[in-house]
Amino acid sequence: MALSRVVAGLARGVVLSLALAGVAAQAQQVLRVTAIPDESPTELARKFAPLGQYLESRLGMKVEWTPVTDYAAAVETVVNRKIDLAWFGGFTFVQANVRSGGKIIPLVQREEDEKFRSVFITDAKSGIAKLEDLKGKTLSFGSQSSTSGHLMPRSFLLAAKINPDVDLKRVAFSGAHDATIAAVASGKVDAGALNISVWEKFVTEKKVDPTQVKVFYTTPPYYDYNWSVHADMPQALQDKIKAAFLALDPNTAQGKEILGLQRATKFIPSKPENYNGIRAAAENAGLLK
Question: What does pTM read for this prediction?
Answer without folding.
Answer: 0.81
